[in-house]
Amino acid sequence: MNKILWKSIREETKLITNYTENNYLVLIGKIISDKTFSHEIYGESFYVFNLEVPRLSGNEDIIPITISERLIANFDLTIGRKVVIEGQFRSYNSYIEGRNKLVLTVFAKNVTMLEDQESEVEARKDFLSNEVTLIGYICKKPIYRQTPFGREIADVLLAVNRAYSKSDYIPCIAWGRTARFCENMEVGTEVKIVGRVQSRQYEKKYEDGTSEMKVAYEVSICSLELINEEETENKEENESQEAV
Prior knowledge:
With 244 residues, the chain is mainly beta. The protein has helices at 3-14, 176-183; strands spanning 23-31, 36-41, 44-54, 60-68, 82-96, 99-113, 130-146, 152-162, 166-175, 190-205, 211-226, 236-238.
């Protein structure tokens, strides 16, 4: 799909987009870093801290949270506090080391303290601690592959409309039969994704032979639904696999 057609799709949909419903998440976890100043917009300061969110597998995701000074005025956001974060998964471009880099963060719109500050937060199937819902457009041809162990994976880049003619570009990863389904999706396809925000460490190797450990953030897809207003039925592909 060319850039003109992709721009046309964005222009046609931005006027009817519900920016709350098309990008919404809930995280429950423990603060594991001090908040640090991030930036200021129109006199309003924003801060960043890391939230540890447990997985069913027993591992944890370390998720960066961006929050306004207005939301933390009456809260004690010190290390060890357990909180509920409601907000959006957002992206922005940052010029780092001579090149543009897509930076991902959770933009907090509401924060509350857990009543039980003594017990550790545990992931359970009957306890929602990490869920994100995204409605957007496939903006890059999905990449399907198999791991050396035969596990099927598809990388999906989703463009999610935001107010003021902006978009968030969210990398997502599908598993199993959902990955096979994604392989044939065309650029411009509108989908609804429900999943969880995950952090993943990887080793980046450089031409001089050195390497560096980095962290990637993405949405692990639990369910994917095609959205087509011209049809009365939506086609769904569901996969409930927990990434480890």
